[in-house]
Design goal:
single chain, mainly alpha, 6 helices, elongated
């Protein structure tokens, strides 16, 4: 998990978020419970999805896996916090696995980390392929999303070994003209999938 900068609010949310929120909350008040899905799902617009893909570089906000079938993730779950359903600051990009693992979980006392607002390195760190927690909020995030699932740990270990091999090449021939190119490739790799 790594920090990102929030992009500008997509046009569909600029124009409609307040209206959609009013309609959702009115429906909840009218029926006295959870509204039908059609009142919660109006954010599923291409401009919202595209803005999140750009914001996260096409990577899941939690595990940093490349997202093929992007889910729009609600930091505060929409069914528990309907007033935040269309709040741009509450929307993130997630892979299917992380979104399903998190589901409607939210810990009020120690909320899951937000890649825009929270300094991730204050809460989480990597020890080889496993995520270690530094705070209770880090634990909540790791546990609610399943950040140490076996498949993720394997992918992180594979990347770690690749990176170590490249670092070893750089150390063996620091004056090689190719070293700068190798360093640039290494930096790009660390910005990509599972790069943290």
């Amino acid at each position: 998990m790594k920090n990102v900068l929030r992009t500008n609010k997509p046009v569909s949310l600029q124009r409609n978020a307040a209206k959609w929120t009013r309609e959702l909350l009115a429906e909840i008040d009218q029926i006295g419970g959870t509204a039908p899905d059609k009142f919660y799902d109006k954010y599923k617009k291409s401009d919202v999805r595209n803005a999140l893909i750009i914001m996260y570089g096409g990577l899941c906000c939690y595990c940093e896996r490349h997202v093929d079938m992007a889910h729009i993730e609600h930091h505060k779950p929409k069914k528990s916090y309907p007033e935040y359903t269309y709040d741009w600051d509450n929307l993130h990009l997630s892979c299917i696995e992380c979104n399903h693992a998190k589901s409607n979980k939210y810990n009020e006392g120690y909320p899951i980390l937000d890649a825009v607002r929270d300094q991730i390195t204050d809460h989480l760190e990597y020890k080889l392929s496993k995520i270690q927690t530094l705070t209770q909020r880090g634990r909540t995030t790791r546990d609610h999303v399943g950040l140490n699932r076996e498949a993720l740990a394997e992918q992180r270990m594979r990347l770690f070994l690749e990176v170590m091999k490249v670092i070893d090449e750089i150390n063996k021939a620091p004056d090689d003209p190719q070293t700068d190119l190798i360093k640039q490739e290494l930096e790009e790799r660390c910005e990509g999938e599972y790069g943290s």
